Amino acid sequence: MRRLVWSPDAVWLVVASPSPDGGHEIGLERVAGRSGTEPRVDVVDPAVLTGTGSRLGEVLLAAGPVVRVRTGDLWDALVGAVFRDAMPCYRARAVYRATAVNFGTGHDTSLGREWVFPGPALVLELPPEVFDVDGLRQVRDRLRTVAWVARELESRWRAVPWDGLATLLAHVPRIRSLIGGAAIADLSGDFRALATSDFLVKQHVHALDPTTPWPRSAEHFGARWQAMTGIERSAWTTLVLAAGAWHTRRVP
User: Contact, 216 vs 189, CB < 8 A?
Assistant: First the structure.
């Protein structure tokens, strides 16, 4: 797996390569911008969590530690959150890449040409028919909204505390707490920014541990998830999402 990601003042190629023992190793290559701007990398080990005696905990322990590369740009995080909310991962990947290739900026890497998603200014300029043809109709209005927000906050979002930025995004129509929370989690690495009843967390938990009678309603699941994970909810959430997410992998 490989993907270009933004960090402050640079673009990096992130590559997950299989290691001999069955895990994955993460490599970083700067392809544009200044040095010394590596994206933050978090490693979450399920072995250090409490309460891993549950069936879900056993599944996560068997999967092993997870490495996750943080997004370093508000626009990139908001775009990812919009796609996350709008369509299944397999379709989001295809539409995201097609848009990046057709309208984004290309960079030469050691593994060939790769593209970053077009910036907010260009997205705001795209005519409606482009959104329709390239499969973006479903996210057109939300993309335009987050493009406007990213452009307005471009020079100052890094100076805003995460909780303040989350509150600001939650009050923007078409973003609200669902998209805003996912973007903050992506930027900060703290997945407590997601709602306890997050639909993807609920979906993954049910799939990973189908024999446990997890609540079906979002409200009741959220209460159960918070009670079970407590102050470790960020780590549990990261591990659960990684179990079926394309952008995270096991590490040795």
Answer: no
